[in-house]
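User: tokens in, sequence out, please.
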């Protein structure tokens, strides 16, 4: 056989050991470290400690969360204020976590917009037996000129009142919202048709 495997492996190990020894001697000798090696280690360290977009992305995500909370609180405020003035009810019943869910869908509908949720004008309505009732408008960031309009349409239950509260309140004064609601998105300064999303 022509192959000499063992001697070849030994010679490779010796050459590798010799190469490593020379490399470390260069690193430990003053003034002999190559500029490229030094520069590469600094760049790696910078990338590890300061990812270029991590802080910015985290900041934007936090801002969106704050805006979503603001929108959710404003919707709850409008619904509370509308009980006596617009909806003419004493008690307004909402499905659990409904306003939070609507707030999340509002954010999702704003994701493809240039300014995101900051560029929205959000109009809040309740679809009642007497027609569509306007509760108010929300501007998540008043410093930004709106580029699109989102109409949030809550839907009142067709049944008058709720039997479980019959002995506590006058049922004509109890209004219950259904879990279903509608989002209508319309781009401002555009001739595009509105986009309608129905959620259940």
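Assistant: Sequence out:
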């Amino acid at each position: 056989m022509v192959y000499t495997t063992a001697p070849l492996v030994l010679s490779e190990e010796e050459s590798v050991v010799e190469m490593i020894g020379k490399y470390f001697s260069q690193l430990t000798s003053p003034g002999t470290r190559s500029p490229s090696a030094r520069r590469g280690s600094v760049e790696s360290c910078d990338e590890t400690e300061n990812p270029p977009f991590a802080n910015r992305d985290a900041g934007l995500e936090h801002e969106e969360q704050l805006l979503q909370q603001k929108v959710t609180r404003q919707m709850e405020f409008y619904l509370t204020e509308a009980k006596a003035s617009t909806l003419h009810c004493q008690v307004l019943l909402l499905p659990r976590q409904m306003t939070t869910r609507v707030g999340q869908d509002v954010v999702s509908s704003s994701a493809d917009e240039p300014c995101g949720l900051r560029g929205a004008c959000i109009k809040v309505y309740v679809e009642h037996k007497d027609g569509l009732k306007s509760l108010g408008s929300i501007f998540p960031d008043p410093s930004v000129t709106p580029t699109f309009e989102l109409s949030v349409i809550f839907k009142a239950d067709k049944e008058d009142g709720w039997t479980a509260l019959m002995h506590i309140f006058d049922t004509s004064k109890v209004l219950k919202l259904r879990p279903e609601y509608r989002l209508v998105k319309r781009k401002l300064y555009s001739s595009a048709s509105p986009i309608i999303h129905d959620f259940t």
